[in-house]
Amino acid sequence: MRIIKVKNYEEMSKIAADIIAAQITLHPQTVLGLATGSTPIGTYERLIELCNNGDVDFSQVTTINLDEYCDLDPTHEQSYRYFMNKHLLTKVNIDLENTHVPNGKAADIDAECKRYDELIQKKGGIDLQLLGIGHNGHIGFNEPSDEFVMGTHCVNLKESTINANSRFFNTTDDVPKRAITMGIKPIMQAGRILLIASGDDKKDILKKALFGPVTPLVPASILQLHKNLIVVTPLDL
């Protein structure tokens, strides 16, 4: 585990983006695992800037997102496909055919989960996985549980997650209660994992994840076992 302590959110975003850009420069056909939420927005803004300046080329990159809400159309403003298109994918020179987000509107969710795992395997796995961390320690939508779920699966979101995400919706009732999420296995099989976290409200859970016992009750704690984990944070740990 390598922890890079930074001054603030802006520096965290810059360093994270520079790590991703270096990965792409060294390996133009990189498979990137991407995350949503407020934390990576600054990182994506920096990547767009680097692309526009000619400092990074996304033309051969493949992206695979961690998760998607069930029952939201990809054009819905709160879907994660919409989020990724808005904050990164339509603003860099990537082929949108090479960008992948689970289909939360699939008629057969179990089949969609199987398809997504097969897709990851077909692409040769993820080279660099970008992660944030939820207030309850979730990564993707892998929520606290009695066990680590290995494959892509449908999850019933915890009340704390629904409440945290309600700021993006008109009311808490509008927040989807289920989501498709990449499982622990493809995340842990990534060549590198880049975890970013900011905000004092994330300090305690980040400490538990990085230095506490490895337990599915704190899903992010599994990252302690990864051979190439980079943590970038302004938080004092």
Key terms for this structure?
single chain; 237 residues; alpha/beta; Rossmann fold; three-stranded antiparallel sheet; 7 helices; 31% helix; globular
How would you portray this structure in words?
The chain is of the alpha/beta class and 237 residues long. It has one domain: 3-Layer(aba) Sandwich (Rossmann fold). The protein is built from seven helices and ten strands. It has helices at 9-26, 41-52, 80-87, 109-122, 159-165, 184-188, 203-211, and strands at 2-5, 31-34, 62-65, 67-69, 99-100, 128-131, 153-156, 178-181, 192-196, 229-233. Strands 1-10-9-6-2-3-5 form a seven-stranded parallel sheet, with helices on one face. Strands 4-8-7 form a three-stranded antiparallel sheet, covered by helices on one side. Helix 7 links the parallel strand 9 and strand 10. The radius of gyration is 16 Å and the shape is globular. The mean pLDDT is 96.
Question: How is the secondary structure organized here?
Answer:
Blueprint lengths: L1 E4 L3 H18 L4 E4 L6 H12 L9 E4 L1 E3 L10 H8 L11 E2 L8 H14 L5 E4 L21 E4 L2 H7 L12 E4 L2 H5 L3 E5 L6 H9 L17 E5 L4
Parallel strand pairs: 1-10, 2-3, 2-6, 3-5, 6-9, 9-10
Antiparallel strand pairs: 4-8, 7-8
Task: Report a brief summary of the structure.
This protein has 7 helices and 10 strands.
Topology order in helix (H) and strand (E) letters: EHEHEEHEHEEHEHEHE
Shape: globular
**Arrangement of strands in the largest sheet:** 1-10-9-6-2-3-5
Main sheet: strands, sense, barrel: 7 strands, parallel
Low-confidence stretches: none
